[in-house]
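Handout, section B. The chain below has 195 residues.
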Amino acid sequence: MYGLWKPRVLGAWRVPATGPVILAVNHSHNIDGPMLMGTAPRPVHFLIKKEAFIGPLDPFLHAIGQVEVDRASADRTAITHALGVLERGGVLGIFPEGTRGEGDFASLRGGLAYFALRSGAPVVPVAVLGSAERRGRVIRALPPLRGRVDVVFGDPFPAGDGSGRRTRTALDEATLRIQERLTAHLENARRLTGR
């Protein structure tokens, strides 16, 4: 990442040094996941769509601990692997919107809240800004080479309300709480970076 772009990492000290953590990342470009993996203070295990596990990428992604997920259904194998990462005190990376889009956290799926409530792991919001910059691109699918990409980590927070409930209502409430925190972090990161 540092050879191709100029990442500026802000707030990495906010990521707890030990224990399970979920990094909730906005997703507006293909490079967002690799950018976070290359700049995070701890190794990150992402839930990645199974379509990415093709050709030479398949053994590589598995070797670096990424979790293959079938987005067409409730992939129990992926859920078990992701919970295993957290049970072992690792860092799970999630794009809470489920797919690439505007990167504004406008429509969250329930997966992030499920993992946070089930594991008790704190959620750290992460904003990747500048990856979708269109000016100066040499390769259409990538941000401008040597362009600045900002990775801004926020304060960790619990997804639950402290009651320990794991009901459907608790999951819905946690999803709304998470969305509010992620949206506020993104707005703050934009102000901080001028993007």
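Note. Residues 6-193 form a domain with the Glycerol-3-phosphate (1)-acyltransferase fold (CATH 3.40.1130.10). Compare this with the example in section A.
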